[in-house]
Amino acid sequence: MPYNFLEHTADVKFRIESPTLEEMFSSSADALNETIRGNIKILEQKEKNFEIEGKDLEELLYNFLEELLFLLDTENFLISKIKDIKIDLENKKLKCVATGDKAENYKFTNDVKAITYHEMFIKEKNGKFICEVTLDV
pTM score, two decimals? Predict the structure, then answer.
């Protein structure tokens, strides 16, 4: 598991260390999904393609995770896996394919209300990308 959940008084916080930005973003989706569904395996019944952008990497990560919550809230789509993720660093854009299933087929462990910027960061250190994200639950 490339992410670790950290101690937080009221919310859920995770940290990721990854060799690539794409892996870091994908692992962020995994951490968000584990927070929402626990250890329940989600079937890969449907695919959703989407593209997002941001003014910097933190906003790109925030918008990416918010898109996953948006798909859950508006389309009843629970993500199983992120694949074919591509990040354009120059233009701060991300394209990916998300696989998943109808959320109504599963029980949730947590209600994630929002992604927050609180203590969020992305940095590169010793050839690895590191980020921390706090989820409002």
Answer: 0.94
